[in-house]
């Protein structure tokens, strides 16, 4: 049997965890994974996870670099334009060098 004191302590712990802003992104990701696993049966496959992680790798590297710059006190707002110009010029340079068919 669960007592009222135990319920209150569990409620306090849950409130402490859910009250932190830092964990909100983790909650959103977990809820998205749960929702997509019910909506698309093949979502929880190994191939799907590797595709998601591969697509997020470039954005996470940019985010880590921007975090280091912000911590160091240097604000570099040109990262968005640099990333978009690199993404648009990479296929053209690959086709010029005949790396793409």
List the helices and strands and how they pair.
Blueprint: H1 4-19, H2 24-39, H3 46-72, H4 79-96
Count of alpha/pi helices: 4
Give the structural class: mainly alpha
- Strand coverage percent: under 5%
Low-confidence stretches: none
Shape: flat
Secondary structure tally: strands: 0
Average predicted local confidence, pLDDT? 78
Order of helices and strands: HHHH
Largest sheet: none
Give the quaternary arrangement of the chains.
single chain
* Spatial gap, N to C terminus: 69 Å
Considering DSSP H and I runs of 4 or more, what fraction of the residues is helical?
over 70%
Radius of gyration: 22 Å
Question: How many individual domains?
Answer: 2
3D structure, described in words:
With 101 residues, this protein is mostly helical. It has 2 domains: 1-44, no CATH class; 57-101, no CATH class. It has 4 helices and no strands. It has helices at 4-19, 24-39, 46-72, 79-96. The radius of gyration is 22 Å and the shape is flat. The N and C termini lie far apart (69 Å).
Name the descriptors.
2 domains, 0% strand, mainly alpha, 4 helices, 101 residues
Task: Give a quick precis of the structure.
The chain has 101 residues and is mostly helical.
């Amino acid at each position: 049997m669960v007592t009222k004191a135990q319920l209150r302590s569990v409620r306090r712990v849950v409130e402490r965890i859910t009250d932190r802003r830092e964990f909100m992104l983790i909650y959103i990701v977990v809820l998205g994974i749960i929702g997509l696993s019910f909506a698309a049966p093949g979502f929880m496959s190994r191939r799907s996870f590797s595709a998601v992680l591969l697509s997020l790798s470039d954005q996470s590297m940019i985010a880590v670099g921007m975090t280091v710059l912000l911590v160091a006190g240097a604000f570099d707002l040109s990262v968005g334009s640099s990333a978009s110009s690199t993404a648009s010029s990479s296929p053209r340079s690959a086709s010029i060098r005949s790396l793409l068919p």
